[in-house]
């Protein structure tokens, strides 16, 4: 049994809610402290309000709980970030620098930092974007993730802090709501479909983006964090891939089960963000170093999403 005490920051978010549950299954509920700036609705284990931009409060929680590992999920995502760029930069960088500082000072053994495909900009190759493509993003969110990756690399090389990171594609899951990203449509569309409502998509029908189903994202995170340190050759952040699809393709996948489902398209400012990102990702470094392999493709995911959301919304015929 591990004696680690784990701190999850941003635990009420789309990924944090599911990752916290997975960590509690792996380490025991009492060993995983969930924290967020927002109160939790029905915490299934220890929970505290914590603003990660408050370095003293973070330090106090780390000391009081004898924390040994930190998963830092708090961030302002791409779409919300463009609505208030300076605020997004401040939250994303201040919280991350506080985590790195406390980790060094309190001898934290491992730190997890999620990066994003948003680190890439229009001048990176669109198809099979390589690990080492140019990182010149056009969103403040992307800029903060490029800087964050470089700070992770700096702390590893300068102080020996074991920081590990993945560049998640858009994450889709039935368990939690997305928090203000450009890929959020790919979660919303399933909720509308199962509730029998038409969906108006904020991206064009043919906008291809890299995506990953939540169980794959959680498994990738735990596999990376459990890999032997000598296997980790990338200390900025690993490219990670699952599937690529467009809004029209996800709609067609849903219509295999719900033929009456209708989608219309009204692109807004998020279209420009999506246009600046890769269509597909080369994740061969992750596959080579720690054996990453995704499981879910589009139709596998649709089946699972519809089944779980069918249960939630009382549609027995698809659950
Ligand atoms: P989210 O917006 O759903 O959740 C973020 C959580 O952080 C929220 O619960 C929010 O209340 C909390 N938070 C915000 N400011 C905080 C602060 N100052 N202190 C403490 N908590 C604070 O985001 P998510 O989708 O769960 O993403 C988690 C991480 O994964 C982020 O770093 C994000 O950039 C990254 N990521 C997510 C995706 C995706 O598709 N969801 C893709 C790529 C990368
Ligand atoms: C967003 O759309 O901002 C996120 C991401 C890909 O980082 N889902």
Account of the 3D structure:
The strands form three sheets. The protein has a seven-stranded parallel sheet with strand order 3-2-1-4-5-6-10, sandwiched between helices. A three-stranded mixed sheet has the order 7-9-11. It has a two-stranded parallel sheet with strand order 8-12. It has helices at residues 14-27, 55-64, 78-83, 85-105, 140-159, 185-194, 214-226, 247-255, 270-275, 284-290, 298-312, and strands at 6-9, 32-36, 47-49, 69-72, 110-116, 163-168, 170-172, 199-201, 209-213, 238-239, 243-245, 263-265. It has two domains: 6-169, NAD(P)-binding Rossmann-like Domain (Rossmann fold); 172-210 and 242-318, Rossmann fold (3-Layer(aba) Sandwich), CATH 3.40.50. Helix 5 (140-159) links the parallel strand 5 (110-116) and strand 6. The protein starts with 5 loop residues before the first strand and ends in a 7-residue tail after the last helix. It is globular and about 55 Å long. It contains eleven helices and twelve strands. With 319 residues, the chain is α/β, with parallel strands linked by helices. The structure holds nicotinamide-adenine-dinucleotide (NAD) and 2-amino-3-ketobutyric acid. 2-amino-3-ketobutyric acid binds next to loops. 2-amino-3-ketobutyric acid binds at residues 77-78, 116-118, 141, 170, 181-183.
